[in-house]
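Question thread 4412

I'm putting together a teaching handout and wanted feedback from people who do this every day. The idea is simple: show students a protein as raw sequence, then show them the C-alpha cells that encode its fold, then repeat with a second protein so they can compare. Below is the first pair exactly as I plan to print it.
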Amino acid sequence: MSRDRLNNPHDKYFRESFSRKETVRSFIRQYLPSGVCRQLDLNKLEIVKDSFVDKELSEHFSDILYKTVISGKQSYLYLLFEHKSYIDHFTGFQLLRNMVKIWEQCLKSNRNKKKLPVIIPVVIYQGKHKWNCSNSIISLFESVENTDKYIPDFNSEIYDISHIPDEEIRGSILLRVHFLIMKYINSPQLFDKLHDILNMMALLSEKRKKTEYLETFLRYLVSTVDNSKFEVIKTELKRTVDKGDDLMPTIAQMWIKEGMEKGVEKGIEKGIEKGIEKGIEKGIEKGIEKGIEKGIEKGIEKGIKKEKMETAKKMIQLNMSTEDIRKITGLSIKKIDELRKK
C-alpha cells in the first residue's frame, strides 16, 4: 500500500464515513435509482472485509465493497464505492479492473457458481473542478468503425459532491453531515459552514456516536487545515456543542500527532540524505549504513521537537495552562516558561 495513498486525508475520511452501514443504507435509499433500491434487502447489507478482496485490489485504499441480498433470491448484489478527490479520466478502467478482481474472488470462494454477481460501481467525487468524465467506459476506447460489439461497456453512478447545491444533499443527518464536510473541506467557505455542520451533528441522538463522529470530523479537519484555525474551531465548538470546550486538549493532541508524523517524515528524508552524504565521504558501506541510521534518528528527533514547540506556542496564545501544555506536548515546565517569555 503506497504511503501517499494512506496519507490522503480525503480518502481516509471517506473510508471512515462509508464504512458505517447506516450511512451507506441512507445513501442507497436517497441516491441510487429507485428501481434498483426496490430489489435490495438493506437489512442484510454487509461490508466485505479486505481479507475477502485480494492483495492487489486492497491497495486501492479508498475502495469500499458492500454486498446485500436481492429480495426474494438467494444471490447477492455488490456495491463498489470508489472515492476521488481529483478528476481521473481512467476511473472507469480502474473500476473494471477492480470488478474483475471481485468476480475472480467470488469464483475462487465458490467453485460451483454458475453466474457472476452484479456489481454496481459508485464514484463519490469531491474536487475543485466539476466532474467532466463520461460515466460509461466505452468512451475510453478509440473509435473504430464496426467494432462496438467487441468493447466491454458498463455505466457507473457518479456523484459530484463538491458541486451539488446544499439543498439537494439528502439523506440521514450523518450522511448529510459527511457530504457537507466533503463539499466544503477545501473551500474558503468551510468556516462559514462550520456552525451549520456542528449544529446538525448536535442533533444526533446517541451520545457515544455523536462524540465518535465529532472526533472523526475533527481528525479530518486537523489533517487538512492549518493549526492557525484552532481558535475558530474552539469558538465554534463552545458555541454549538455541549461540553465542546472539553474537546480542546483532544484537538491539540491531534495536531501534535499530525505534526509529529510530518516531523518524522521530514526527519527520515533529511536523515537519509545526510547519511548517504556522510557515508560517501567515508567511502565505506558501513559508513553509509551508520550515517543513514544516525541521520534518521537525529532527523526524527528534530522534527518531533520542532512540532512540539510550535504546538506549545499556539497553546500559549490560547491561554492554556502550563500543566495542560506539559501533559499534551511532553515539554518540560522550564521549556514552556521559556516559550512564554519570548
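The second pair follows. I'd like the answer to focus on this one:
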Amino acid sequence: MAIVLFSALLGGCSQQSIEKESLATEQSVTEEPERSVLVTAEEEPESGQKETLQGNSESDAEDEPLTDVEEKSEEDEEDEEDEEDEEFDEFESEFEEAKQEVSDPLEGYNRAMTTFNDKLYFWVLNPIAGGYRFIIPEAPRRGVRNFFHNLLYPLRFVNNLLQFKIANAGEETLRFVTNSTIGILGLWDPAKEWFDMRPHEEDFGQTLGFYGLGSGPHIVLPFFGPSNLRDTFSMVPDNYLDPTGQRKPLGQTESYEAEYGLLAIKTINKVSLRPGEYESLKKDAVDFYPFLRDSYEQMRNKQIKE
C-alpha cells in the first residue's frame, strides 16, 4: 500500500510539473509573436523614412545642376586644349616660315663645301683636338676659352650700343673689368660665377638684322661652316673689333702666321671642350646639309630677336 501511495504521489507531482512546463511554453510562444509584431511595427516607419530620404536625395541629385567648380574645371580643360592647339599651330607656322625664308640658290656649291668641311673635321681637326684634349687638362682649356672670350669685349660692347642696348653694354663693361682684374686677364670668369653677370653676345650681323637687313642667300664658307651673305660681309667689321683679328690692308704681302695661329688655337680648344657634339648632330640628321642650313638660319633669327 505504501508503495502504491508513493507512486501515486510521484505521478501527481510529475503531472503538475508537466502541466506547469506546458503552461510556461504556451506563454512564451504567445509572448514571442507579440514582441516580434511590436518590433516590426516599430522598425517599419524607420525603414520607410530611410527609403523616402534616399529617394529624395537621389531625385535632388538628379535635379541639381552642375556646380560652379565643375563648370569651371570643364571650361579650364577646354581653354587648355585650345591653347595647346594654338601653340602647336604657331610652332608649325614658324617652322614652315623658317623653311620658306631660307634662300639657297647656291645649294650645289654649299653641299660640296659642307662635305669638304665634314672631311676636314674628321680627318684633321677632330684628331688634333683629341690629342690636345688628352694632353691638356680641362681647367687650362677652359681658361684659354675664357681668355679669348674676354678679349672680344669691344665686339660685344660696340654692337650692343649700336642696337641701343645700353644696359647690356654697361654690364659687358663691368664684366670686362671684373674678369680682367679678379679673373687674371680673363682666364677665370668671376663676373658670371660670383655676380651672375651673363655675357650679351652681339656681332655686326645681328646689328644689321636688328635694323631690318635680311640674311640673303645661304653660303657655306670653307673652314668656317654655315653662314649667309649678310653675316659673311659682317665678318669684316667684326674682325677689326677683335684684338686677335687680321687688320692688315689688302694687297700687303706680310704673312698672317700669328693671326692664323691664334685662330687655330681657338678652334682646336673649342672643339676639345665639345667632344662628340658634331657627331651627335650628324647622326640625328637624315640629310645633313639642310639640317645645318635650317638650324643656322633659325639660330641667327632667334639671336636677332633677343
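Top answer:
Good format. For the second protein you could add a caption like this: The two ends are 136 Å apart (CA to CA). Residues 1-73, 86-98 have pLDDT under 50 and may be disordered.
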